């Protein structure tokens, strides 16, 4: 059985845009995070683990997320699985960032 990510040989409805684009701040940040976490001296995440996380996304998410959004969801999953961060800690930090951004937007 094929995974949702396994598109080899499948017909496509539209041409694939192969044009290069400048990376967004988000894309650069996710790439840097993955490089730090996968550095052999840290050994927190391996690339094959990242791939597993991406390839096991539900179809809706796999096709709904951008390339780096898939990465960040996989990174989150792996950090939770490995106990590097707890769900509560992650949620508190996310809420802190949201509050800080909201405060900055009202200035």
Structure description:
- It is globular, with a radius of gyration of 17 Å.
- The chain has 107 residues and is mainly alpha-helical.
- It has one domain (25-105): Nitrile hydratase, beta subunit (Cyclin A, domain 1, Orthogonal Bundle), CATH 1.10.472.20.
- The protein contains 5 helices and no strands.
- The mean pLDDT is 89.
Any chance you could write out the topology, listing elements then pairs?
Elements: H1 25-38, H2 47-55, H3 59-64, H4 67-81, H5 87-105
- By oligomeric state, this entry counts as single chain
CATH homology superfamily name: Nitrile hydratase, beta subunit
Number of helices: 5
Class of secondary structure makeup: mainly alpha
- Secondary-structure element pattern, one letter each: HHHHH
Which tags fit this structure?
single chain; 107 residues; mainly alpha; Cyclin A, domain 1; 59% helix
In brief:
The protein has 107 residues and is mostly helical. The chain has a single domain, classed as Cyclin A, domain 1, CATH 1.10.472. It contains 5 helices and no strands.
